[in-house]
Design the sequence.
């Protein structure tokens, strides 16, 4: 019998015999929340407050997981700042981070420029108007792929030691902080303004930029103090050695904070980049962390950023200089994309970001931030290009493959991240105090393993969320089949799903609630992911979506007087539970009646969730679904539609509203008793006829015409395969691009109606067979080179109108 059993176990895999559940023991001791050691926090006359303990941050005394998006106002035309801020906010971002690059404001010593695209005050006022909080990164050193990391060239000619406690250097820093303080006077948090946090320095005693005044072939001269240059590295990474001048670094950070406070730059929270043994201000600043799985400064390799861990105990880019368990884990510089340089052009897939955020949340992160979230264009200085030229970055483009592009257009990653931000905005207060519980074998899981399930859980008071991701950078994962869980709580066990196992397909991620109270309803589990919540005159509602390929299943414990009904659902009941299930492609609604209260669960598929938007309405938040990009305030909803003059949208909960549009016609297309109220807007179609012509390796397009009514922008896709593309107007470089397989698209509205030039001239260079960046292209993107080892193909450009329509929603 033993021999037969051995033979059978050898012949069949364990999953062939019976699917064994993944077990999580959630019977854990609650964490100790401490704040007495942290000298931070504050409130203002509006009753708003920010504070932090060792585990999470609180906004207005409620636990929160803030989401920050980086946007550099000096890299974007000021006439479009308001639109950009609204787009960032539409993505679920609640906080905006921005640099004050010293050399953009004092390029020439003593000549300050706070005008036009450098108008910090105007930008912060727009953030206040749009109810977006701000983290101001005041330097003096910033990095940000700006020339000298933001330090003015003229500092190199001074008798001083930069980024040190040199008195002469600190005199100039003091003057910089004084200037910044004047610009934000009355706009700090204590005055009711949006600036609630300030970052001091950047990657101090970790990283630096090369001085821009250099010669071809010359080794980099780092923008670091003399004693730190030996320890300085090019980008974010692990510090292999302990800096013998660490104490001086900590002291310098404290001096910078004192100078900021001396000049009135006083806020509830100060932050400092703390990865790779960088300096912070102990107990007076929140050390923020980073994650760049696709760096341009290091060889392509598998990262551990998709493996769950306890980040508060084991921070990324460790070792760190501080006691990590004394601070909340704020992953404030997650690579929302990646900048490309001439020799390295990595691309960042959208699924990688979704999985990355899932991993961070499942590993205990209680703050998220993207660098970058919105791309831009680096301005040209009076004497130099202000990009970080020694590193070989584009002269102008700072697109960064960000969720919102250099011209404010959404990338695929925008919607992937948006659904996670909506979740955090609704349920971050629940998640923030929850602690990480990892499977027993978590430390044995390796990045190169392609068929092992990666999962974790966060738990508090016998309730929590399970996190799974099936993505890994620089390798192809396999579908994980036969998944089911057994969760051990103090008072019971929950095994799910009840009907059958599920599959987590490659590149997919998921967050499932377990033993969670949602309003007045207790949920045993759901194999669907929470998107958002709300309420109306009919009661509370919760919105879920099912990850690709997973059929939603909901289990509710039996309670006295409880009745469940549903649309497009199968409902079962026994003595212990109600079980509601849907197919993976169905849209359905569960209605739960109990104690005269009604609670609704809307279930949609993931493709629909990616088209979701939260809009402001007089009765509170509403959920809108549309292929178009949507921004809103309490007075209007704006739709931006690329190339399609027919815009459809639907509202949940269904309501009797009358949309009134500023242009075109609006028709209601839904019938009575539908889950959604559906509409179609038709705006006048606009044909695009842009004259262009080719000449050898050049192309010219005529941009003399005006944008027609109803068109917000005209997008030009520059179709070429080569090395680089450069765009000139009146002989001045205004845009550039390094070919990396991603289409080069330019928003033309900022260039049209230019009084100096009515034409854009493009210059292209051929790709070379020996180019180092070919390692970053897919094989199908590498062309067949000619006998000289070169390739250049310039095709007809494409043009797409971006329609814009504004509607108001009025009750019938």
Sequence:
């Amino acid at each position: 019998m033993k021999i037969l059993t051995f033979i059978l176990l050898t012949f069949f895999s364990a999953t062939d015999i019976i699917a064994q559940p993944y077990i999580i023991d959630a019977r854990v001791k609650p964490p100790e929340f401490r704040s007495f050691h942290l000298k931070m926090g504050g409130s203002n006359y509006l009753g708003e407050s920010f504070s932090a303990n060792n585990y999470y941050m609180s906004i207005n005394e409620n636990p929160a997981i803030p989401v920050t998006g980086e946007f550099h106002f000096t890299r974007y035309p000021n006439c479009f700042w308001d639109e950009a801020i609204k787009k960032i906010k539409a993505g679920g971002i609640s906080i905006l981070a921005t640099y004050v690059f010293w050399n953009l404001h004092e390029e020439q010593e003593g000549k300050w420029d706070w005008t036009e695209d450098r108008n910090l005050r105007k930008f912060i006022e727009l953030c206040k108007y749009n109810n977006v909080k701000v983290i101001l990164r005041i330097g003096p050193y910033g990095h940000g792929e700006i020339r000298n990391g933001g330090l003015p060239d003229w500092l190199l000619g001074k008798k001083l030691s930069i980024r040190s406690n040199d008195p002469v250097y600190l005199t100039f820093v003091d003057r910089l902080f004084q200037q910044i303080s004047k610009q934000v006077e009355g706009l700090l948090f204590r005055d009711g303004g949006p600036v609630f946090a300030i970052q001091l320095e950047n990657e101090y005693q970790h990283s630096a930029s090369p001085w821009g005044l250099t010669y071809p072939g010359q080794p980099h001269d780092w923008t670091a103090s003399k004693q730190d240059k030996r320890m300085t590295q090019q980008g974010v990474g692990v510090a292999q050695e302990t800096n013998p001048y660490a104490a001086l670094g900590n002291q310098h950070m404290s001096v910078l904070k004192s100078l900021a406070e001396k000049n009135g730059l006083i806020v509830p929270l100060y932050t400092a980049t703390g990865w790779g043994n960088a300096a912070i201000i102990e107990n007076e600043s929140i050390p923020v962390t980073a994650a760049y799985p696709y760096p341009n400064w290091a060889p392509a390799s598998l990262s551990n950023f998709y493996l769950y861990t306890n980040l508060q105990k084991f921070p990324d880019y460790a070792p760190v200089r501080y006691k990590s368990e004394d601070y909340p884990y704020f992953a404030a510089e997650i690579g929302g994309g990646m900048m490309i340089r001439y020799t390295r052009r990595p691309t960042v897939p959208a699924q990688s970001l979704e999985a990355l955020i899932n991993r961070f949340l499942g590993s205990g992160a209680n703050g998220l931030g993207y660098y970058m979230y919105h791309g831009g264009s680096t301005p040209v200085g009076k004497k130099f290009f202000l990009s970080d030229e020694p590193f070989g970055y584009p002269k102008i483009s700072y697109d960064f493959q960000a969720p919102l592009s250099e011209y404010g257009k959404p990338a695929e990653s925008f919607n992937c991240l948006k659904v996670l931000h909506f979740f955090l905005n609704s349920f971050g207060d629940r998640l923030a105090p929850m602690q990480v519980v990892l499977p027993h074998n978590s430390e044995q899981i390796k990045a190169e393993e392609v068929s092992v399930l990666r999962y974790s859980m966060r738990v508090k008071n016998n309730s929590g969320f399970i996190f799974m991701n099936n993505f890994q950078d620089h390798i192809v994962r396999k579908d994980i089949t036969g998944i089911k869980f057994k969760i051990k709580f103090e008072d019971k066990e929950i095994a799910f799903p009840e009907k059958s196992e599920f599959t987590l397909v490659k590149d997919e991620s998921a967050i499932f609630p377990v033993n969670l109270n949602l309003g007045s309803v207790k949920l045993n589990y759901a194999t669907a992911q929470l998107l958002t919540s709300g309420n109306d005159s009919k009661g509370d509602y919760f919105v879920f979506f099912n990850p690709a390929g997973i059929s939603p299943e909901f289990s509710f414990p039996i309670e006295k007087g409880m009745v469940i009904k549903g649309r497009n659902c199968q409902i079962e009941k026994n003595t212990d539970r109600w079980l509601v299930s849907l197919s993976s492609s169905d849209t359905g609604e569960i209605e739960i009646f109990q104690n005269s209260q009604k609670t609704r669960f809307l279930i949609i598929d993931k493709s629909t969730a990616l088209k979701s938007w939260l809009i402001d309405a007089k009765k509170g938040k509403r959920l809108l679904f549309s292929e178009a990009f949507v921004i809103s305030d309490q007075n209007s909803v704006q739709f931006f539609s690329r190339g399609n003059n027919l815009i459809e949208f639907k509202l949940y909960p269904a309501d009797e509203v009358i949309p009134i549009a500023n242009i075109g016609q609006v028709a209601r297309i839904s019938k009575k008793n539908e889950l959604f109220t559906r509409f179609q807007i038709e705006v006048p179609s606009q044909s695009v006829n842009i004259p262009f012509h080719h000449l050898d390796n050049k192309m010219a397009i005529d941009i003399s015409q005006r944008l027609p009514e109803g068109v917000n922008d005209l997008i030009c896709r520059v179709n070429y395969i080569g090395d680089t593309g450069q765009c000139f107007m009146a002989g001045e470089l205004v845009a550039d691009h390094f070919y990396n397989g991603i289409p080069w698209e330019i928003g033309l509205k900022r260039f049209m109606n230019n009084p100096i030039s009515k034409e854009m001239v493009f210059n292209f260079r051929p790709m070379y067979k020996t180019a180092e960046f070919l390692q970053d292209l897919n094989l199908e993107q590498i062309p067949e080179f000619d006998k000289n080892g070169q390739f250049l193909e310039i095709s007809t450009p494409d043009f797409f109108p971006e329609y814009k329509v504004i509607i108001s929603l009025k009750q019938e």
